[in-house]
Write a structure and sequence with these properties.
With about 140 residues, the protein is an alpha/beta fold. It contains four helices and seven strands; from the N terminus they run βββαβαβαββα. The strands form two sheets. It has a five-stranded parallel sheet with strand order 5-4-1-6-7. A two-stranded antiparallel ribbon has the order 2-3.
């Protein structure tokens, strides 16, 4: 079975950041774009956002579901790596799990060697319909 994964940040991706000190709520329009990507790409979500701290995978699934998410949250990236940036946390997850393709959706670029798998969003707008074709193409590309 083909396994594709979306490493998902939330602030600046599903929750647009309106001011540097005021983060918004989850935007249903951004969630709909994620639904399209997950469905067309045949991909599950691994949460790489700071929202994963203190939340279980079930909590994250329920939170996204409540905003209209129709896909599946299967995991979250490790949090115990002292001093690791997000790219290193994702790399650690990938080292433990076999995937056929993956994409990182984030508003930051700190992905190190995984940057070629990053689709960067504009924090004030979040995930937009125009991002979907690029994200899906990246998911379908063998890693």
């Amino acid at each position: 079975m083909t396994r594709r994964v979306i490493f998902l940040d939330i602030d600046g991706v599903l929750a647009p950041i309106h001011h540097w000190d005021r983060y918004g709520d989850l935007d249903p329009a951004c969630v709909q774009v994620l639904n399209e990507i997950a469905a067309h790409g045949g991909a599950d979500v691994v949460v790489s956002s700071t929202w994963r701290y203190g939340r279980s995978v079930a909590d994250l699934q329920a939170m996204l579901d409540s905003q209209g998410f129709t896909g599946r949250v299967i995991d979250k990236t490790p949090t115990g790596l002292r001093g690791a940036d997000r790219g290193e946390e994702i790399a650690a997850w990938l080292a433990e799990h076999a995937v056929d393709g993956y994409v990182i959706i984030d508003d930051h670029v700190d992905m190190g060697g995984l940057r070629s798998h990053l689709v960067q969003t504009q924090p004030a707008h979040g995930l937009q319909p125009a991002d979907a074709p690029r994200v899906i193409a990246m998911l379908m590309r063998p890693h």
